[in-house]
């Protein structure tokens, strides 16, 4: 894909996104499909998708600077740019989801720390500070500062995806969410998708004449493969344990995921395109940058399907039988499919992430702080 | 004359019967509306008596009783004299006829917009035709003693009050809807800013959409994007009515006298007596949320 095509695609994405944002500010949530019985939809799924991408990208920088994986050290600017961009996109997406966007700062002014959401906001803030500090260190060639920031950020990058999982896992009312495996799934899911994103970018957008290029791509491909295997193992636990004896609400909810009207989200987007194809590429062509790059792209982008299946199916299960017929309204429904409006806001978030990542990389490149990007 | 004599009593009897039925209807109607009006059961320590028997014979059994609404009103006033109340609601599912009057009365009382409902009545068909029966389950907020919706709020905009009602601060709620996902009874709904007149011909909103409502004792008008638009909303046992010495609207509007309300701190109150019955149960007891809404089954 040449530069012009890239700009054209980005412009289209940004324009669609701007329409969505304009509608969000002018018509509120009128055009969104979620309601009171399914309160969280595409935007929340996109939020945790981007949050996971950010954590995984950050982990690459941590591997280089904290754990001394020298091959990955040159990727730190790229990884941190992605971490910042994805975090920004995540927070903007969930901001659009609020009923009172103007009150978002209340989470700082009057937090209640019994809430996992409050914890997550504060962890995000601390995490964002370490990302900015680490980037500042790179800009100022103060690599010690970068290292310290990343050391401080190491526990944060473990806790905050875990807290995102706990945000769902602690909800007793939602039988599908209420599982100890959720925080672990979120942690490793974030790592997988974020590392896969950096793998994709490294394969396609870093200098191929760099002596360490092939080794870096190979190593990232191996890490992505290992994380994918680990994630599948966790997912097997998530599905097989509640489904084994084929009774109960969780079983019914998971059957809905596997064989319900949106079965293709699991089987096609997640399992086939997000797992099987990337793993096959990584196993068959571990040293081919193109194959590894595409594997990274698929594993990262298709992870949105995983996020959708983590957020929505639990809410589709009525808490009280017959409630849906007790009072009829479009907001009191147990069926949900995102509207074009919701997708257009997601397009804005993607465009925003690309813009932030591009701007940071462009800036660092101008300052000659990048070792591997063109 | 004998004919006259013979017809006179019957005419009197007819008049008496009319008179009796008129009084009876008035008494029933008064009982229905008294809780809804600002009526104080002043000195009403003596029970309100319905006509015990008809002039022509025992249409009603020899029975003196106090209408439960009158009793609850009297107990409510007594409870408000005490420093602390423990509000409890009891719903007799055997008496509920599924008329949905409580749902509508609640909508009217709180000027609820489309998509926001505090007290739907769940209808379930039991059995298969022709051997069927119906079960009606009104579902207000359970005002749980261990409310799962409270600790999840990231800004502390909802809390458990001393009297047991779970309150929401509309001016603090950020509209994240975490509490909606956390409620195992789905008793919270989000106000999306919809109006009943949306998409209808005509200009603007109807007057009933513009009048204020008084939830939590404050005046709220649904304008533009101001609270409660964008907020989580739910039943609050009509706290604003309680503050005025009135029973919740769903209680006063129940035509079957199937909903009871009162202070469980008074062991002699109607609700205390009802909650101690062996057929009193609560929804999803296994979750440990300790609801304050009991069902008689």
How is this structure best summarized?
The complex is a heterodimer of chains A (374) and B (297). Chain A is mainly α. In chain A, 73% of the residues lie in helices and 0% in strands.
Description:
- The complex is a heterodimer of chains A (374) and B (297).
- In chain A, 73% of the residues lie in helices and 0% in strands.
- Chain A has 14 helices and no strands.
- In chain B, the strands form four sheets. In chain B, strands 8-1-10-9 form a four-stranded mixed sheet. Chain B has a two-stranded antiparallel sheet with strand order 2-3. Chain B has a two-stranded antiparallel ribbon with strand order 4-5.
Strand content of chain B: 5-15%
Sheet with most strands of chain A: none
What's the main sheet of chain B like?
4 strands, mixed
Classify the oligomer.
heterodimer
Q: What's the end-to-end separation of chain B, in Å?
A: 59 Å
Q: How many alpha or pi helices of chain B?
A: 8
Instruction: Please report the total strand number of chain B as a whole number.
Output: 10
Number of helices of chain A: 14
Radius of gyration of chain A: 20 Å
Instruction: Enumerate the spans of chain A where pLDDT stays under 50 for 5 or more consecutive residues.
Output: none
Rg from alpha-carbon coordinates of chain B: 23 Å
Morphology of chain A: globular
List low-confidence stretches of chain B.
1-14, 31-44
Mean pLDDT of chain A: 94
Query: How much helix is in the residues of chain A?
Result: over 70%
């Amino acid at each position: 894909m040449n530069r012009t095509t890239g700009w054209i695609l980005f412009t289209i994405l940004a324009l669609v996104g701007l329409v969505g944002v304009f509608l969000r500010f002018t018509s509120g949530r009128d055009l969104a499909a979620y309601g009171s019985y399914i309160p969280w939809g595409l935007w929340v799924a996109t939020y945790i998708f981007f949050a996971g991408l950010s954590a995984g990208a950050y982990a690459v920088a941590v591997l280089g600077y904290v754990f001394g994986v020298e091959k990955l050290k040159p990727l730190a600017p790229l990884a941190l740019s992605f971490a910042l961009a994805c975090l920004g996109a995540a927070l903007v997406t969930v901001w659009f989801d609020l009923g009172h966007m103007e009150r978002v700062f209340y989470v700082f002014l009057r937090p209640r720390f019994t809430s996992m959401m409050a914890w997550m906001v504060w962890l995000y803030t601390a995490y964002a500070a370490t990302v900015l500090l680490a980037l500042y260190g790179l800009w100022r060639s103060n690599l010690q500062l970068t290292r310290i920031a990343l050391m401080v950020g190491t526990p944060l990058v473990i806790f905050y995806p875990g807290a995102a999982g706990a945000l769902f896992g602690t909800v007793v009312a939602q039988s599908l969410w209420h599982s100890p495996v959720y925080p672990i799934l979120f942690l490793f899911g974030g790592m997988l998708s974020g590392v896969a994103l950096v793998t994709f970018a490294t394969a396609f957008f870093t200098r191929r004449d760099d002596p360490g290029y092939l080794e870096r791509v190979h190593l990232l491909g191996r890490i992505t493969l290992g994380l994918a295997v680990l994630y599948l193992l966790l997912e097997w636990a998530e599905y097989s344990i509640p489904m084994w004896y084929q009774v109960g609400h969780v079983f019914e909810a998971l059957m809905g995921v596997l064989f319900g009207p949106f079965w293709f989200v699991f089987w096609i987007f997640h399992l086939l395109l997000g797992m099987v194809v990337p793993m096959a590429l990584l196993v068959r062509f571990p040293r081919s940058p193109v194959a590894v790059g595409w594997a990274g792209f698929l594993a990262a982008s298709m992870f949105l399907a995983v996020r959708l299946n983590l957020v929505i199916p639990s809410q589709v299960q009525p808490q009280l039988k017959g409630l849906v017929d007790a009072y009829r309204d479009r907001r009191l429904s147990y069926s949900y499919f995102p509207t074009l409006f919701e997708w257009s806001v997601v397009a804005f978030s993607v465009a925003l992430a690309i813009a932030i990542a591009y701007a940071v990389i462009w800036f660092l490149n101008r300052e000659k702080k990048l070792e591997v990007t063109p | 004359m004998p004919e006259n004599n013979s017809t006179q009593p019957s005419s009197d009897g007819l008049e008496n019967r009319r008179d009796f039925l008129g009084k009876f209807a008035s008494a029933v109607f008064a009982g229905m509306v008294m809780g809804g009006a600002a009526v104080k059961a002043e000195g009403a320590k003596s029970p309100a008596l319905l006509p015990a028997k008809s002039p022509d014979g025992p249409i009603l059994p020899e029975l003196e009783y106090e209408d439960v609404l009158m009793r609850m009103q009297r107990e409510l006033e007594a409870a408000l004299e005490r420093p602390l109340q423990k509000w409890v609601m009891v719903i007799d599912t055997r008496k509920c006829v599924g008329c949905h009057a409580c749902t509508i009365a609640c909508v009217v009382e709180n000027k609820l917009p489309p998509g926001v409902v505090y007290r739907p009545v769940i209808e379930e068909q039991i059995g298969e035709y022709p051997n069927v029966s119906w079960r009606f389950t009104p579902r207000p907020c359970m005002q749980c003693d261990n409310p799962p919706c409270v600790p999840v709020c990231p800004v502390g905009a909802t809390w458990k009050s001393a009297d047991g009602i779970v309150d929401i601060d509309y001016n603090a709620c950020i509209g994240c809807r975490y509490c909606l996902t956390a409620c195992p009874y789905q008793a919270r709904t989000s106000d999306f800013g919809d109006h009943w007149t949306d998409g209808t011909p005509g200009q603007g909103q109807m007057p009933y959409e513009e009048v204020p409502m008084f939830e939590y004792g404050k005046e709220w008008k649904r304008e533009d994007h101001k609270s409660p638009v964008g907020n989580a909303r739910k039943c609050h046992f009509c706290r604003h009515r309680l503050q005025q010495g009135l029973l919740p609207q769903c209680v006063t509007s129940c035509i079957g006298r199937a909903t009871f309300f009162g202070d469980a701190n008074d062991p002699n109150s109607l609700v205390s007596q009802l909650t101690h019955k062996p057929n009193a149960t609560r929804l999803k007891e296994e979750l440990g949320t300790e609801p304050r809404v009991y069902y008689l089954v």
